[in-house]
Give the backbone structure.
Amino acid sequence: MIDFSTKYLGLKLKGPIVVSSTPLSESLDNVRRMEDAGASAVVLCSLFEEQLALESKALDEDLSRGTESFPESLGYLPDLNDYRMTQDVYLEHLRRCKTAVDIPILASLNGATTGGWIRYAKDVEEAGADAIELNTYALATNRSQTSAELENQLLELVAAVVGAVKVPVAVKLSQSFTSVPNLVARLEDAGAKGVVLFNRFYQPDFDIELQEVRPTLHFSTPSELLPRLHWAAILYGQLKIDLAITGGVHSAEDVLKGIMAGAGITMMASALHIHGIEHIAGCWPMRNTGWRSANTLRCGRRADA
Ligand SMILES: Cc1cc2nc3c(=O)[nH]c(=O)nc-3n(C[C@H](O)[C@H](O)[C@H](O)COP(=O)(O)O)c2cc1C
């Protein structure tokens, strides 16, 4: 059988399947089931800085005034009032996960201010997170904002978080960057240890009956894997930063393709929502491909296996 053990962000993982950030991991029982089914790590659902703002009523006021102070977050969150765990609950959940399972637990953060990102990063590190994934969303909504400005903001943020914690930091990117290799190289220079290709977001849709905007998020399909494979393959070999693929990984074949493209790990969310957590077990790449290890599978792409 192929040895699929791998290293991601300096963490030794028993295999290439990691559960990406999803509300499924809000349940401790689910996290145990993920480990039992063969996940080699779990990225917890994101802790959103806005939740605290919401608690303090500040965001409520902003929203009711219609100032749209958090346009990027509003694009992601369908209903802030329903939204997930508070910071204390999140940290407690993280501590419990760390006690309950042996696999690494990664915290996922989505901040709104640099101060918030740093504070949260320190908190989750203290609570025992093995690594931190930054769930970033750089969306230009203003005609005066340039791509370079957006990228620089992202780089400053990443450098600030990396400088504040000792645990490794990965950056989950959206697909809407022009020169992905240049950006990823600069993320590496800023201290990021991994890059996650690519997040999917709620998109505004229109309800023509109610005549209002309705955020929607559909589960992915395997066809969404293709651009991720493409970018991982382009990045592989150019940089030292670890590559993770998220988006469209639904089967053992998809996992193999991700590794072949150069990703250290492949992540799953939608497939687990659709088929259940135990689906992970069936996605371990058991097929005899003739390669000896995940590494030779990657190298095989370069015709030297
Ligand atoms: C219901 C749902 C909730 C999600 N919540 C988060 C989140 O809190 N933070 C995050 O970084 N990604 C979140 N994601 C994105 C997933 O982690 C993943 O990157 C994306 O869905 C692509 O992977 P997939 O094709 O396996 O679903 C969510 C996805 C789904 C389906």
Q: What stands out?
A: The domain at 6-297 is CATH 3.20.20.70 (TIM Barrel).
